[in-house]
Each structure stands twice: as C-alpha cells, then as structure tokens.
Amino acid sequence: MLNFWKRRRRAVNASSPGFNCPGDCPLASCPIGYCALVVGLSCPAHEARRLRTLGVFEGARVNIVDTRSGILLDVRGSRLALDVSVARSIRVRPLAA
Amino acid sequence: MTAAAGPVPAPPPRPTTRPLRVALVGNPNCGKSTLFNALTGRRQRVANFPGVTVERAEGEYRTENGAVEVVDLPGTYSLSPESPDEAIALDVLLGRATGVPPLDVIVIVADAENLERNLYLATEVLELGRPTVIALNRVDRLERAGLQIDVVELIHELGVVVVPVVATRGEGIDRLRHAIDRAVSLPRPALALDESGEAAAAPDSAHAAADRDAQRRYRWIARVAERTITRRAPRAASWSDRVDAVVLHKVWGPLIFLGLMLLVFQAMFSWAQPLADGIQALVALTGAGVRAAIPPGELRSLIVDGALGGVGSVLVFLPQIAILFLFIGILEDSGYMARAAFVMDRYMRPLGLHGKSFIPLISGYACAVPAIMSTRTIQQPKERLATIMVVPLMSCSARLPVYTLLVAAFVPAVAVGGVLSLQGLTMLGMYLMGTVAALLAAAVFRRTLLRSETRALIIELPPYAVPSVRVLGNSVWQRVRLFLRRAGTVIFSISILLWGLATYPRATPVDGRPVTQEQQLSQSALGTLGHAIAPAVRPLGYDWKIGVSMVASFAAREVFVSTMGTIYGVGHEGDDTKALGQRLRQERDPVTGRPAYTPLMAIGLMAFYVFALMCTSTVTMTHKETGGGWTGARWAALQFTYMLVLAYGAAFLIYHGGLALGFGGGA
Q1: Domains, in order of start, for chain B
Q2: So what's the pLDDT on residue B573?
C-alpha cells in the first residue's frame, strides 16, 4: 500500500513536463494534472447530451485529475468518472499543467 | 427540452382550504433528500409514481397559512425526458403527471459548492415560468472550498428568491418555508438566455441543436457565475482525491468493495440472526399465550398456526431488511456508492448488469426480499429488471435448512484431500451452482428480453460526507414500513390460505383411532395436491411425501423441512433435523424394499431448491417492484416459471445422469 502511494506521487510529479501535444487529442491520452479545453464530442447523441448536462460540452474546461483507473475529471468543481471508451470520444485541446 | 419549455397556464390563486403543493427538484447528490427531511420532518411517505417504478417521497408541514405538501422528485441533471426519472420530474413540473396534482411552487435545490453545474437544471426549470424558489444548500462548505457567493447578485441575475440553507443542520429552513409561502404572489421568473444570433444559425442536426442549447446555457451560466462567485484559491488536490486514488484503483478498488460487501453479508447473516430469533421467540411466546387461553380447536389452530405463523414469517425478514438498508444508506450517503458502481461496472458490464447490481446480488445470499428492494438504486430500468429477475437464484438463507437436512442425511462426512469435508464441498457446490446460474441468466436476459443499447459509463462522484443519522434512520424506517405494508398483507393472506389447505377437509378417523398429523396432511387439500403432482415429480425420483412437502414449501422453502417432519412424525420444533435425516435414510420403498431416498436423489432435490423460486415473499416483492398490476404479474410469472423449468431440468439431469453413470445405489 505504501509503495503504491509513493509510486502515485512520482507519477503525478513526472507526468507534467514530458507531454507534448501540439493540437487536439482524445481526452483519454491527456496526462494527469492537465487542464484541457473540450473541442468535440463524437459519441452517440444520448451520451453526448448526458456529458453536456454534466458540464462536458464544447468550450468547457476540464482538469484531468487521474487517468489510471478510467478517467477522473474535475469539471467546475465536481468530480466526474468516465471509462476510457467515453474518454476516447471526447476531443480536447490541452492547455497547461 | 426547449420544445417543452413553453409557458404553462398560471394556476389559480391559492384557496385557503387547499394545501400548497411544492416540488423539490435538483441534481443527484445536492442534498435534496436531506432538505426534504428538514422541511417535512417525520410526516412523509414513500410510494411509486403511478405505472413506473420511480420512487416518490411525499411529506407535509404546516405554517400559519395552512398545510404545505412537498413532493421530492428524483434527482436529475436536466429535464430532457430520456431516463424515466427525468421524464417523471418533467411531467410533474409541467403538471401533466397522472395521479399527481399540479404544483404551486417549485423549489430548486442547488449545491452551493457546485453552483455552475446545478444552475444548468435551474435554467431549464426557470424557463417553465412557474413560481420558483432556489434553496442554495451547503453554504457552510463554501468557506472551506475557498468560494464566495453573492446571494443578492444571484437573486438579481436569476429573478427569483434564493435562500441559503444548510439542510444537514436545519439552518435557513424557516426562511425557506417563508419564501415558499410568498412565492405564489411574487412575479413569475422570466429567464431570458438572449443570444438570438445563435438561434438564427442555419438549421442542422438535432445533435448540433442540443449542443448549441447546452452551450447557450453554459455561456449564460458562466456570465452569472462571473458576477456572483468569487474563487479565492484554485481547488487543490483534496484528501477526497487521495481517497479516490485508492478506492478507484484497478486492484485495490474491487478488493475494498469486496471487503465492504463481506461486512454487509456478515451483518445480514449473523447480526440479523439474534434479532430474527428474538422476533420468532416473541411470536412463539404469543402463540403459547393463545394456546393457554383458547381451548384446542379450529379457532386456536387458525390463530396459532395460520395467523401467528403468517405474521412470524413476515416479521422474520425485518432485521435483514433494516440492516441491509442501513448499510446501503451509509454507502450512498457517504458518497462511496458512486465509486463502487464505477469500479464494479467493469465486471458487471459483460453480463449486461450495472455496477450497482452487485449489492443486490450479494444481498441475495442472505435474502432475496431486501435484495430486490435494494435494486432501486439502479436507475437503468432494464439493468434493474435483469437484476431482479436473477437475484432469487442466489442461494438465500432460507435454503440453508433444506441443504442442511439433505447434506447431513445423505452426504457421507468424509474428508477430501485431508482438510475439506465432502459435506462442506457439497454445500459450497450448491452456492456456486446458484451464483453461476444467476450470472448466466442475467447475460441471457440482457441479450434477449431486456436488450438495450450499451450504456456509457459516466458517473458523478459526489464529495465524501458523513451520513446524517436522521436521514439514515428515516430511510431505513421507510423501507421497513414499505415492506410491512406491501408484502405483509399479501404474505399474511397466503399463509392463512396455506393453513386452510393443510387443515381442510378434515381427515376421518379410521377404526376410531385419533387422526395423526400425517393422515391429516395426506387427506387435506394440500395433500391431495401433493398426490396429484406425484406423477410430475416421479421422473425426479420423488414420492408423494416429497411432493406434498414441495407443494407446501411453495410459500417458503424452509417449510419443506417442517412438513417432512410432520409427515414422518418427528415433530417440527427445531433440533430434530438429525432425527429426521435418520428417518429419511431408513425409509424403504414399499414395493421394492430398497431405500426410498438415495444420495443421488438428495443431490437432485437440493439442485431443485437451488433453482426453484419457492418463496411467496419474493414473488410478491418482484410483482411490486417490477411495476405491480399486470406488468408486475407478468414479470413475476416469468421469473417463477423460468426458475421452475431450470429447477426441474437440473433435478432431472442430475437424477438420470447419475443413474446412467451408475450412482443409483442405496445410501
């Protein structure tokens, strides 16, 4: 358990500088700690609507809190958990760590 | 949503004789239920909306202006009528839900900590143009979250009264009640999301229109937020994120959840037992009192064996129901349930079930009745139905007496591999057989009758919180009351009916000797039924005695043991399982003289009890929870039938397969 904590610490610290994404990319490949601008939702309409009512819409800013078990987002102060297949259908523009 | 948002005709001014009708609407996890409790206190009841299984809680309180009726709508993120919950909320708000009188005032419950997201639903509700009050809940947490909200400015922006409250501590409730009273006489909200240029864009797909609508709302919300919310410090990684890193972890997450489930299971199995024993002792004591007061005869038998027996069979479930719902309440209100659903969804999805299906399935090991009630936490109707349909396949505690009797009587107590006993392994095999069947049946149901498009896993994780004792107590009490009222009446009547079947017609004494219990049972209507189904159970290797016991145990499985006890005259007062087992082993076939019951037959019989739905309470619960009326009856009938077919098939295969393999010998 303790090792897991240490590894997590390292993972969080190491994730920020190495990532280089010039344009848009799927939310699923955005690293921990990044802020991203949502640019497109390519999932089925009912899923997209659900995402939008939860604050994930084109133009929204989200923070990537965790990516190791599904994707954990901070959306305007609320925590949203998505599975990777949903996160792949969300295109984002990474802004800054 | 936009189409439904047209202005609604204004309700007539409130006559003094009619109670004011108020609805609470808000996002899931915004503290709506707590606020509902704070507003209405103990005066509340839980029922379903007509025709659907969406729960509605109603309560009332009094002010100097008269009574106020409050209906707590299901938590929703928006008013797009997609899920049954949201469709019901929209119908009630528009005053077109059947069986729900039109509303006078809408109270939007908004979580202050999460105001922007909560305002999304608020914009949709305000567009309805009804008298509205916003209860800004959890304002006590703003300080810690580094937030400040300018309530006066918010009132200006939204055009309705905003009342800051802390529902958990009852703060601001009086002011909220006052605002509700006055809302009818205030001007209606007239929300204008402007941006006409946006709406004039070229017509395109509905997808894009919905998208623009969401963007339009959020843009408006962003402007309102800019004027009303001050963020002092950016939200740092909180301790709840650190907890989430562990409980959502791929390995630790499921392990932690399994550990918690083990605790719940243990509690339902062993903590509930003393309570259930206490209730049974109380019922027995009452029975003894009645026996002493009333001379032997029909009336005494009706009261003691029929009525008290029926009441006892219902009351015995209460401790398990209370304990399960106490735990579910703690898991839900602490915020952990959403995490568990996220973690377990990965494993339940291939079976077509929801992450939350896990809790009913595990609870099914203790008792299917509370397990079926607990499926209400699953919002997707088809996943919920599939869960209900398979839950009774999990071996519940009522099967244990049957397994115990047959295993003790027919499975030799030899060791396997030095440590494991064959009896224990047989028992484990029964549990495994039920579990595997339940999972497979779920997969089949979700690929045939209950097919639906795959659901994306998008779950909001509410902030962790300490559950309120009052809310917990209330929710447990509501479940207990619901169970007593609904199942109680039906199960009670069926118990009386079964008593009648077992008692009448009265057996005639032969040669002047008094009628034995066995004779009475054999000649009663129930016995006649048992003889009638004998040809049906003969292919499984059973005689009429087992037939009668099986028919009797259609009310409740454990009755099998006591009925066999009655037939063999071993009494059914408790510790006679051993004696009964002995008696079963000695029983000879009257024609061939060989043992009437063989281990092979016993295994087949156990398999029958693994699969068969022999429990009136479960059938009743399924009927109620799948919609009641004809719809519920169809689901309950389907459940009963498919499980009976499985049971018969399994018993048949085991018996004849075993015979073919040469296992038919005597014990």
Answers
A1: 20-231 (3.40.50.300), 246-264+321-469 (no CATH), 477-660 (no CATH)
A2: 47
CATH for A64: 2.30.30.90
Nearest to B211 among A58, A75, A83 (CB): A58
Tokens representing B552? 């009797």
Is residue A72 a part of any domain in this protein? yes
Q: Which of B161, B160, B157, B162 has its CA nearest to residue B189?
A: B160
Percent of chain B at pLDDT above 70? 88
B588 DSSP β-pair partners: B595
Structural domains in chain A (count)? 1
Q: Which residues pair with B58 in a beta bridge?
A: B45, B71
Q: A76 vs B117: CB contact, 8 Å cut-off?
A: yes
B105-111 and B20-26 as β-strands: parallel, antiparallel, unpaired?
parallel
With CB atoms and an 8 Å threshold, state whether B250 touches A44. Answer: no
Residues 35 through 74 of chain A touching chain B, CB cutoff 8 Å: 41, 43-55, 57-60, 65-66, 68-70, 72, 74
Residue A7 lies in a domain: no
pLDDT value at residue B471: 80
> Which domain does A38 fall in, by range?
14-94
pTM: 0.76
Q: Following DSSP, what letter does each residue of B208-260 receive, concatenated?
A: HHHHHHHHHHHHHHHHHHHHHEEESSPPP--HHHHHHHHHTSTTHHHHHHHHH
Classify residue B377 by burial, with Cβ atoms within 10 Å: 0-12, 13-18, 19+.
middle
Q: How far is CA B475 from CA A80, B466, B485, B664, in A?
A: 26, 15, 15, 53
The answer to whether position A8 is within a domain reads: no
Q: Give domain status of residue A1, yes or no.
A: no
- Answer yes or no: do B77 and A53 touch at CB < 8 A: yes
- Residue type at B592 in one-letter notation: T
Position of tokens 């303790």?
Answer: A2
Helices B32-40 + B469-503 axis angle, to 10: 80
**pLDDT beyond 70 at B587:** yes
